[in-house]
Design brief:
The structure holds two protein chains of two kinds.
Chain A lengths: L3 E2 L21 E2 L2 H4 L12 H9 L8 H4 L7 H9 L3 H11 L3 H7 L6 H4 L11 H15 L14 E5 L3 H12 L3 E5 L8 H4 L8 H14 L2 E3 L10 H6 L4 E4 L5 E2 L12 E3 H10 L17 E5 L3 H12 L4 E6 L10 H9 L3 E4 L1 E8 L5 E14 L5 E5 L5 E4 L2 E4 L3 E2 L3 H4 L26 E3 L2 H4 L4 H20 L2
Parallel strand pairs in A: 3-4, 3-6, 4-5, 6-18, 8-16, 9-10, 9-16, 10-11
Antiparallel strand pairs in A: 1-2, 7-17, 12-13, 13-14, 13-15
Chain B lengths: L1 E10 L2 E7 L1 H6 L5 E5 L7 E4 L2 E3 L4 E7 L3 H7 L6 E2 L1 E6 L10 E7 L2 H14 L3 E8 L8 H6 L3 E6 L6 E2 L2 H10 L6 E5 L2 H11 L5 E5 L15 E4 L2 E4 H4 L2 E3 L5 H8 L3 H7 L11
Parallel strand pairs in B: 9-10, 9-13, 10-11, 11-12, 13-14
Antiparallel strand pairs in B: 1-2, 1-7, 2-6, 3-4, 3-8, 5-6, 14-17, 15-16
Helix pairs in contact in B: 5-6
Classes of the chains: A alpha/beta, B alpha/beta.
The structure holds flavin-adenine dinucleotide (2 copies), iron/sulfur cluster (SF4) and FE2/S2 (inorganic) cluster.
Chain lengths: ~475, ~280
């Protein structure tokens, strides 16, 4: 198998004299091969390449990279351990501050965080911090030498965490390490949140998430699946059962539709449904697995974020002949990670930019057959600073489609706020917190992750869990 | 893991099961449902909670064999386990004293309407129940329905038992006979609910229906279960499952229920598609 590399997209290396080793490429499945399977696309560093890459780090006295990391990973320290060939130690250093390094090494937008501020990036390419993180975490998992730290004696206090996404998993791990009994209540039948139902196997293998969840269970975190809080018990009932504090980490799981005519025709999915069928329910293995999914020939995905890229690349792997991204701005404004847009291009996704759907057309069985779109042009910058798209009158045209995935965003799921009196939410339904502690308007109730910020990132959701663990500990210690 | 503690065949293709689910048994209210999974490879199957016994820590479900999973479930035995049971889900029925009401159940829908009839009766309503099936052998829960109804009328399409005709004709006859009906609860195949809603509309009799769209997560996260009610898109799993029958777009529900017909018949040899179809 011939491998290509994501580095193909990176700017031509301008070698300074001090920096002799070029940024190490990570082998990948070739586009032609990988669009026919759901296996992971990048294959990871070998030990040799990892050490070479690690040697590029100049061990800054005042490292910019740490400041760029939302959870302050000790980046130069773990990289030094890799340079010294102490791979397990590198993993331990990572885990001191980041409980899910194998996940973050794969899905964090490093180009916007640590690598953006790495000193080497000023003159050439930054150290491939994300790839090194992935390498160290994978090394630890593959060798099976996962160590359980010594835990303090139980302090007798119980904490309920609602939602087993990255934020809930992180706080539960931290609380157990502080001596609390932590129970996570998860609505679905599997823990992991977006990591298991949203992000596809080809970007984040589910076995990795499972390993992280198993590790937390070994630490003593209890996970109750199939438990939708607000239905099986309200937060007040959890307090009545003896929980001393509650952390709400239910994500921003509710899909947004565009409310245009024909949106309920058969064949039209929200990205959440499309990805949940494929990832959580393994519909790509139907009929071996029981959950079906529409395998469209001409699939249009609306949106320009990571969710849209994941959906369109899933459509290709499910056999689409034409897979389109329909986005109302241009590629420059796309919020998706550059690497994912690049992967989508390589795999043959067709980008229809400055285009917006206005109506769906269906056949006699109420199945979608066409999507009427209008062309857009960029006008003045809007509140977010991006130039807002304006429709060009009379430019409508129809694209033939037999499946559509709407990936234009998500919003807050109201079940928990609606069943918790006194819990303040903002205009958009997100929970209001005081500063970084995650304290809500109800004493003893904390919140963090997407349900506070709106759809954000894995690492920010984890960071919120860490902060809240500290704040809760202070609150309960003083009680 | 939830154990099957009892299993009874109610008719040729309808099965009643009692499952261990102590927390759900304590908490559930009439009108709510569960989602269950047979195993790791299974599909998420929504089913109404027909009854519960908090002391025994058990809930009752009644299902009709319509496809791969329900067929496989019918082959399960007492002491077998489901890997997952999630619930209770959906909003409970708004149970209050209304006056004289009519509860209508068609086919396996009788199992769904039974908990409502029981709760409505207990709330002090006078309950007239109409239950129907294609033929006598397919009729379920006659005894149970009798116990929670002030009056029970049975109808079969082929006249093999009770009234010869549809449950909707029985309702029409009641209205024609001058019965004062405050509210109707109609649960069964989509065509039946549509006919009943159309029948009561001109009389202005409030009609509650319970919808059964395809679901995935059943927590409001995916939108698979979207239906159109009064021209607005609603998610059945969090906004329902009960809606005002006069506002529901039944044709949309029918077309969306057929979305996987072709694929499901791959998984389940027989080429038929659901109890709501026809
Ligand atoms: C397709 C997709 C791709 C993405 N790609 C990236 C990426 O590449 N990099 C990145 O950094 N970020 C990415 N993100 C964003 C990232 O996944 C989220 O920001 C992050 O998962 C938020 O974590 P969380 O813990 O707040 O919530 P979630 O991960 O959403 O988890 C919330 C959990 O709570 C559960 N829950 C909800 N309500 C209840 C209830 N009432 N009771 C019990 N449990 C409940 C849910 O089932 C879920 O398991 C992506 C998101 C999506 C959807
Ligand atoms: C809130 C709710 C309560 C329900 N209560 C009952 C009940 O008490 N008793 C009962 O017999 N049935 C009930 N149903 C319907 C039941 O869930 C489906 O018949 C079952 O999922 C079919 O699964 P299958 O694999 O055997 O059939 P499949 O071969 O998967 O499908 C056969 C047909 O059933 C329908 N269907 C498939 N999957 C689903 C799904 N996940 N949700 C809904 N419909 C689906 C489709 O129209 C499909 O064409 C309920 C549905 C809902 C939404
Ligand atoms: S900024 Fe770059 S070079 Fe400096 S310590 Fe961090 S990773 Fe190494
Ligand atoms: S089943 Fe997913 S939102 Fe209702």
């Amino acid at each position: 198998m011939k491998n290509t590399s994501v580095d193909g997209m990176e700017t031509e290396e301008k070698k300074s004299k001090k920096e002799k080793i070029p940024r190490q490429q990570m082998p990948e499945q070739t586009p032609g091969v990988r669009v026919k399977n759901f296996d992971e696309v990048p294959l990871g560093y070998s030990e040799e390449t990892a050490v070479l890459e690690a040697k590029r780090c100049i061990q800054c006295k005042k490292p910019g990279c740490i400041a760029g990391c939302p959870v302050d990973v000790k980046i130069p320290e773990f990289i030094q351990a890799i340079t010294d060939g102490k791979f397990l130690e590198a993993a331990h250093i990572l885990k001191e501050t980041n409980s899910l390094p194998a996940v973050c090494g794969r899905v964090c937008p490093q180009e916007e965080q640590c690598e953006k501020v790495c000193i080497l990036g000023k003159k050439g390419d930054p150290v491939a911090i994300g790839r090194l993180e992935r390498f160290a975490a994978d090394y630890e998992r593959k060798t099976g030498q996962i160590s359980i730290p010594d835990l303090p004696a139980p302090n007798g206090k119980k904490i309920a965490v609602i939602g087993a996404g990255p934020s809930g998993l992180t706080i539960a791990g931290d609380l157990v390490k502080l001596g609390y009994a932590a129970t996570i209540f998860e609505g679905l039948h599997k823990a992991g949140g977006v990591l298991v139902y949203g992000i596809p196997e080809f970007r984040l293998p589910k076995a990795i998430v499972e390993a992280e969840v198993d590790y937390l269970k070994k630490l003593g975190v209890k996970i109750e699946t199939n438990a939708v809080i607000g239905r099986i018990a309200t937060i007040d009932e959890l307090f009545a059962e003896g929980y001393d504090a509650v952390y709400i980490a239910v994500g921003a799981g509710a899909p947004v539709f565009m409310n245009i005519p024909g949106e309920n025709l058969s064949g039209i999915y929200s990205a959440n449904e499309y990805l949940t069928r494929s990832n959580l329910m393994k519909a790509y293995l139907f009929p071996e697995y029981d959950t079906p999914i529409v395998r469209g020939r001409n699939v249009a995905v609306i949106g320009g974020g990571n969710v849209a890229m994941d959906s369109v690349r899933t459509a290709l792997r499910l056999g689409a002949e034409n897979a389109y991204i329909i986005y109302r701005r241009t590629e420059v404004e796309m919020p998706a990670r550059k690497e994912e847009v690049h992967h989508a291009h390589e795999e043959g996704v067709q980008f229809k930019l400055l285009t917006n759907p206005v109506e769906y057309i269906g056949d006699e069985k109420a199945w979608v057959t066409g999507m009427k779109c209008i062309r857009m042009e960029l006008g003045e910058p809007d509140a977010s600073g991006r130039r807002s798209p304006v429709p060009i009158e009379g430019s409508e045209f129809v694209i033939d489609v037999d499946a559509v995935v709407v990936a234009v965003g998500t919003m807050a799921n109201p079940i928990v706020p609606a069943t918790t009196p006194g819990l303040e939410t903002n205009r958009r339904g997100y929970i209001v917190v005081k500063g970084e502690s995650g304290e809500t308007t109800r004493p003893g109730i904390y919140a963090g992750g997407d349900i506070v910020t709106g759809a954000a990132t894995v690492i920010l959701a984890m960071g919120a869990g860490k902060q809240a663990a500290r704040a809760m500990h202070a609150y309960l210690s003083g009680k | 893991m939830n154990k099957i503690v009892e299993k009874v065949a109610l008719s040729e293709n309808v099965v009643k099961m009692i499952l261990e689910a102590p927390a759900i048994a304590r908490k559930r209210k009439a009108g709510q449902f569960i989602v269950l999974l047979m195993d790791e490879k299974g599909e998420r199957i929504p089913l109404t909670i027909v009854d519960s016994d908090p002391e025994r820590g058990a809930i009752t479900i009644i299902f009709q064999v319509v496809g791969k999973t329900t067929a496989a479930m019918a082959a399960m035995k007492v002491d077998d386990y489901f890997s997952d049971v999630q619930g209770p889900l959906g909003n409970p029925t708004d149970i209050k004293k209304i006056g004289q009401i009519v509860c209508i159940g068609g086919g396996v829908g009788v199992g769904v309407v039974y908990p409502l009839a029981a709760a409505l009766k207990q709330a002090g309503n006078r309950v007239i129940s109409i239950i129907g099936a294609r033929t006598k052998d397919l009729l379920i829960l006659e005894e149970e329905m009798k116990q929670v109804s002030d009056r029970l009328i049975v109808a079969t399409d082929d006249g093999s038992y009770g009234f010869h005709g549809f449950v909707s004709t029985v309702l029409q006859n009641l209205i024609d006979a001058g019965e004062k009906i405050e509210e109707v609860f109609a649960i069964g195949p989509v065509p039946m609910m549509k006919v009943i809603a159309n029948l009561t509309r001109p009389y202005g009799i409030k009609t509650v229906v319970s919808l059964n769209p395809i679901m995935v997560d059943a927590t409001g996260m995916c939108g698979a279960c979207r239906v159109s009610v009064g021209g607005k898109t609603r998610f059945t799993c969090v906004d329902g499952p009960e809606f005002d029958g006069h506002q529901v777009d039944f044709d949309l529900l029918t077309s969306r229920l057929r979305m996987y017909c072709d694929q499901e018949s791959v998984a389940y040899e027989k080429h038929k598609c659901g109890w709501h179809g026809n």
